[in-house]
Specification:
The complex is a heterodimer of chains A (159) and B (262). With 159 residues, chain A is α+β, with helices and mostly antiparallel strands. Helix content of chain A is 24%, strand content 31%. In chain A, β9 and β10 form a beta hairpin. The chains are: A alpha+beta (159), B alpha/beta (262).
């Protein structure tokens, strides 16, 4: 699930194509793996403070707004390093240290903190990537993060 | 570890050719736009801004759109597209082609809701709001397409012209310094850095990595490299290249700040 867009527009677009039901089915029966990128990851959660639409709700948690602070501008835009929070077959493929391209004003907060695999920091420490059963989410753009992103995608394909 | 400052090569194109202008005039042929972008991608550029200077007829042709799709597809990093975008339809089409962000500039003065509309659909992180600044004597003026809209920098109404929620970052270009390699305007960087809470990109006049480091100290989140990234010397000896090694590390490890309100 790629994601350049706003939360409500993204959900409306999935619903218009009937993809919301299809994705929920796949999440439940494990017949395929789903990789959500940026907004695509956020749409997997229950709700977002960016909009009023309900999310897919295939991962428990909510999406909150990043707040500008003394030393941080919002959106969080550019290359940032990630910290490995959990060794998995995906994170095991990454070079140390790995950096990725981020472009977002909102961040996901999974209810179960144990699913977080990578974290990053921008004013707050937030979930940069999670893995739960057949679902993987990344707040960054691996498809636009040079060789670091390719390592992540390779890990996803192999996992 | 936190967010790094970005060094962003600017790729100006006419059709499928890469060009370099001086003060946005006198485009000089640099080479193939596709090859130039590949070099930037191979050298792991943080990001690239494509500025399309093609005429209206070229931009309207399917051939050009096919080319743009190929260009965006070559990049291992995010690519923004700027080139007199005046409506939502074009913005959506460009993102669909593979560009991460659209640069909205002078059209925003006659269509104040444009950035809002595009941000509502694509998300504000996909909108780069560009402001072109001219140095005239002792004051700054905002370059618009209409002579009637003669704005001084102090007249810039941030609420009205670039409401904070309507865009993801601000790209401030000194038209006077564009392609001149005479040094960035650090006072201009400071002026904007104090007034916006979004990332701030600065363009026009970059002379060296040291110059870029100073701009980051003044509050810039990213620095655009035009002449510096396509010419070995100012205006001559074409060579698409990016700073590397220790010089680049020195830039990238620079602490990014927000001097908002200070």
């Amino acid at each position: 699930m790629p994601g350049v867009g706003s939360f409500d527009a993204g959900m409306a677009s999935l619903r218009a194509r009937g993809l919301d039901r299809r994705l929920k089915t796949i999440a439940a029966d494990g017949s395929a793996k789903i990789l959500g990128l940026c907004l695509g990851m956020q749409l997997m959660f229950d709700s977002s403070s960016e909009g009023i639409s309900k999310g897919l709700g295939i991962v428990s948690g909510e999406v909150l707004k990043l707040q500008p602070q003394a030393m941080t501008r919002v959106p969080h835009m550019g290359w940032n390093y990630v910290t490995v929070r959990r060794e998995t077959r995906v994170t095991g493929c990454l070079s140390e240290p790995s950096r990725f391209y981020f472009a977002h004003s909102y961040y996901a907060v999974p209810r179960d903190d144990d699913i977080v695999t990578l974290s990053a920091e921008h004013g707050v420490e937030f979930c940069a990537s999670f893995e739960k059963d057949n679902l993987v989410g990344a707040q960054f753009h691996p498809e636009k993060s040079h060789r670091y992103g390719l390592e992540f995608l390779k890990g996803f394909m192999q996992a | 570890m936190t967010l790094m400052p970005r060094l962003i090569p600017v790729l100006q194109i006419i059709g499928s050719s890469a060009v370099k202008t001086t003060q946005f005039q006198h485009p000089r042929y640099i080479g193939s736009a596709l090859n130039t972008l590949r070099v930037f991608s191979d050298q792991e550029a943080d990001e690239v801004v494509v500025i399309d200077l093609s005429d209206g007829e070229t931009k309207a042709s399917q051939k050009h759109w096919d080319f743009l799709e190929m260009l965006a597809g070559q990049a291992g990093m995010p690519v923004s597209y700027g080139g007199r975008i005046a409506d939502m339809k074009t913005s959506r089409a460009l993102v669909r082609l593979g560009f991460e962000k659209v640069v909205l500039g002078r059209a925003c003065y006659s269509r104040p809701n444009l950035a809002d509309e595009v941000a509502a659909f694509l998300g504000r992180q996909a909108v780069v709001r560009a402001i072109d600044v001219l140095e005239t004597g002792n004051e700054y003026k905002i370059a618009t397409d209409s002579q009637k809209l003669d704005l001084r920098l102090d007249d810039l109404n941030f609420e009205l012209i670039c409401g904070d929620e309507a865009y993801g970052e601000l790209l401030v270009t000194s038209v006077t310094r564009e392609g001149m390699r005479c040094g960035l305007d650090h006072a201009l960087v400071r002026w904007f850095a104090h007034r916006v809470s979004t990332p701030l990109l600065v363009n026009g006049g970059l002379r060296s990595v040291e110059d870029a480091i100073q701009a980051v100290s003044a509050g810039a989140s990213g620095v655009a490299a035009g002449d510096l990234s396509v010419n070995l010397q100012h205006g001559r000896a074409v060579l698409a290249h990016l700073p590397c090694g220790e010089e680049l590390t020195k830039f990238r490890t620079r602490q990014l700040g927000s001097t908002l309100g200070s």
